[in-house]
Amino acid sequence: MSTTEFTVEDLKRILREAAGSGDGVSLDGDILDIDFEVLGYDSLALLETGGRIEREYEISLDESAISEAETPRALVEAVNNDLGLAQADPVS
Amino acid sequence: MNGRNSSVVVTGLGIAAPNGLGNRNYWESVREGVSGIGRISHFDPSQYPSRLAGEVKGFVPEEHLTSRIISQTDRMTQLALVGTDCAFADARTQPSEFDEYEMGVVTASSSGGFEFGENELRNLWSQGGQYVSAYQSFAWFYAVNSGQISIRNGMRGPSGVVVSDQAGGLDAIAQARRQIRKGTRMIVSGGIDASLCPWGWTAQLTSRRLSTSSDPNRAYLPFDAEAAGHVPGEGGALVIMEDLASAHERRAPNVYGEISGYAATIDPGAGVESATSLQKAIEQALRNADADPAEIDLVFADAAAVPELDRAEAEALTKVFGVRGVPVTAPKTTTGRLGSGAASLDVATAFLAMRDGVIPPTPNVRIADEYDIDLVSEKRESRAGVRNCLVIARGIGGFNSAMVLRDSNQSSGR
Amino acid sequence: MTEGRVAITGIGVTAPGAVGTKNFWSLLSDGRTATRRISFFDPSDFRSQCAAEVDFDPEQAGLTPQETRRMDRAAQFAVVTAREAAADSGLPFSDVDPYRIGVTIGSAVGATTGLDWEYRTVSDGGRLKLVDHEYAVPHLYNYFVPSSFTAEVAGALGAQGPSTVVSTGCTSGLDAVGHATELIREGSADVMIAGATDAPISPITVACFDAIKATTPRNQDPEHASRPFDGTRSGFVLGEGAAVFVLEDLESARSRGAHVYAEIAGYASRCNAYHMTGLRSDGREMAEAIRVAIDEARMAPERIDYVNAHGSGTKQNDRHETAAFKRSLGEHAYRVPVSSIKSMVGHSLGAIGSIEVAASALAIEHDVVPPTANLHTSDPECDLDYVPLAAREHPTDAVLSVGSGFGGFQSAMVLTSPERSGA
């Protein structure tokens, strides 16, 4: 798993599984730079999302990586950092 | 301050029951004795000695709630959130019409969001602690419905959660009445429960009170010579409670009636069944309502369908009301026993019975000779009306609660 | 509050590091901590590995083997602690009409520990989705519905009056006592056995708090891991225990010559309608609960001599609570001593509210304010007098005790000294 890049589409899928949707802006468009808060995901939803990412990609995210990531772009970058893919373009 | 003896009325009902989702569907079923009991479909019950339950059918959470809420809630909370919406709609009001501190929530629970908890326990033991959901910390616990209802509806007044097994539904409504008398204008109260999952089923089996019959019409037969335990179910009712003056002020269209009396006792010692302590609860509730036994037109029995418990209940009723002194019914035989949802559903049913002057039956029961109670086995229309009802709820552990309800025509001058 | 006044006449406490009220008070007044590495199971795979555990021997505590078998640990705590409170009250229970004695036990998570281990058995380590009922213990129903706790206490003390479990998450301990107080005031009971119990230290609870990073990962230093109001705080330390009280109408307590620890003068609970686990930083709803409780006690906020804080040691709570104190007490918030005993006995979820009521009553009894242990580093957002490290002699006639919990509940209670109540 750990050689695969983590994309915003992966994040969308996991967000939906972890915390559903419906409380904010739709996930369908370009959401990379929209704050999680605006998207309708609170800290609890992001903790659940972070936990699922860690399990699926067999990584251990730095605790501050989740709490400090305000946008999908920041979280995707943090995950790829951990996957050793720091240079990859998160938009893919 | 609304005052210690001011009238507290019910102005909205939100019913989710195995034989009807929504007030109208439920009432149409229950007044005709139509049962919602059947073989369990939520999981394969083949390996268990009891296989019947009252499941709420046709409930599609996605039609009512966002996936954001669904992902963090147990089925009982989903039913409770939708039940609350129904109760507000029935009361022809919405939370935005009240000041946020004027609204409270007091619910009963019996086993919390047990199915959610079961899934997380499975994750824990089969995969490890890091597989436990971030929502587990609150999705399963007993306070979850009160918390989620208050958040969804912006209610910032008094909160409460009581657990007294099956008696809890009445205890919650009594606590809500207390809070309204202390000054809160409106409270959502009652209970909705659901634990029809393999782990919840296993826990209920150990009560040794579950019927092992496979015939939905012969499985839950209180006061019958064939009584051999009950059928569990899911669902219940949430009600909107208001101070009478405040309900009049907002011209509430449905003042179903008043919570006029309540009392609770507990049997002496765990497992010691006693008719005396139940009788005491009934008598105290009547006194609290300032009502004579003769004024009660209808009793909703707890109806355990365990012979010694039926005997104690029949004996207490006979002592208070005399031999066949009052019609007694147990519509819960059409839903199964709903944990903390049972008694609040009986309260809702009683108000519908009072509204329409119809006594819903206890179908399929052939009352055993030993019980001197007037058990209503066929629907009765009451020309004189149903003006005062007594609801009895008993919980495992010896909890006895009794509540007196008065129809709305009498709830003005008190 | 025109109705009857309610007094605490008996106290029982089962706390980490201290079984029995006397031991509990000496732990608090010495400022000792009872947090340690979890010993009930191997916590190595968990993020947070510390807890405040009770060294509890059911047999030594007077339970029969039969009682021990059928009761979850939390129920065992409740019964033992209720017996201590009953004995302490000196009330001749057999002379009181049993229907005038009720029981209200609070618990946030009921028999979670029992359910956790039993699930492991019936599911064969999580392997069986359709769990095997043949392996279920006969008393599993008592774990399933925790009203069994109240039934056990009522049975043990011969109570037959109004009885229930109150389960409002981490405010259960305050709310149970508040509920019982209301029952006496309205005349539904003369005596209430009220308190709370929780014994949540098991893998499922540790895991669920790990998942939201609410508990501290300070595993290398468990004795100093609970750090309310400290700048280096990093979450709460899970605890367990119970406190139970005998509550009576003040006048009848006086007329039988009972020792009165304190009067319960005011109480309120409020929902925050905000979030199941999060708190708004402005502390508005807690301030509202405090305002109503003080109002019910008919006193000016300036009369509060000591604030027994929720002080869980999470970043968010301690800020929220500090804001709530300022909002409700005004300038007095800066003068009144505030402390969190969770620094010593951890956070026992629903039980802690009652344990803190016990600490508050004992502060009145002894005119001593218990400290906040482990408080060394200041936090600019927590700028009140938190009584760091050492207990303080301080005339204490009125105490405000507050709690805050998942589900968005905030509760506040005011206790006053019997002298203030006027003899």
Automatic annotation (TrEMBL), chain A:
Domain Carrier: 5-83
SUPFAM superfamilies for this protein: ACP-like (SSF47336)
UniProt xrefs under PROSITE patterns: CARRIER
Organism in which the protein naturally occurs: Actinopolyspora mzabensis
Any Pfam family matching the protein: PP-binding
Cited InterPro entries: ACP-like_sf (IPR036736), PP-bd_ACP (IPR009081)
Protein name: Act minimal PKS acyl carrier protein
Lineage: superkingdom: Bacteria
TrEMBL record, chain B:
Signal peptide residues on this chain, from the entry's feature table: none
GO molecular-function terms, A-Z: 3-oxoacyl-[acyl-carrier-protein] synthase activity
Gene3D superfamilies, alphabetized: 3.40.47.10
GO biological process: fatty acid biosynthetic process
InterPro entries referenced in this protein's UniProt entry, alphabetically: Beta-ketoacyl_synthase (IPR000794), Ketoacyl_synth_C (IPR014031), Ketoacyl_synth_N (IPR014030), PKS_Beta-ketoAc_synthase_dom (IPR020841), Thiolase-like (IPR016039)
Protein name: Act minimal PKS chain-length factor (CLF/KS beta)
Family: Belongs to the thiolase-like superfamily. Beta-ketoacyl-ACP synthases family.
Domain Ketosynthase family 3 (KS3), chain residue ranges per copy: 5-407
Keywords: Acyltransferase, Transferase
Cited SMART domains: PKS_KS (SM00825)
PANTHER family: POLYKETIDE BETA-KETOACYL SYNTHASE 2-RELATED, POLYKETIDE SYNTHASE-RELATED
From TrEMBL, chain C:
CDD domains attached to this UniProt entry: KAS_I_II
Superkingdom assignment: Bacteria
Family statement: Belongs to the thiolase-like superfamily. Beta-ketoacyl-ACP synthases family.
Domain Ketosynthase family 3 (KS3) residues, every copy: 3-417
A single GO BP: fatty acid elongation
UniProt protein name: Act minimal PKS ketosynthase (KS/KS alpha)
Pfam family, one: ketoacyl-synt
Keyword Acyltransferase: yes
InterPro entries: Beta-ketoacyl_synthase, Ketoacyl_synth_AS, Ketoacyl_synth_C, Ketoacyl_synth_N, PKS_Beta-ketoAc_synthase_dom, Thiolase-like
PROSITE patterns cross-referenced by the UniProt entry: KS3_1, KS3_2
Protein keywords: Acyltransferase, Transferase
GO cellular component: cytosol
A GO MF label: 3-oxoacyl-[acyl-carrier-protein] synthase activity
NCBIfam families attached to this UniProt entry: PRK07314.1
Organism: Actinopolyspora mzabensis
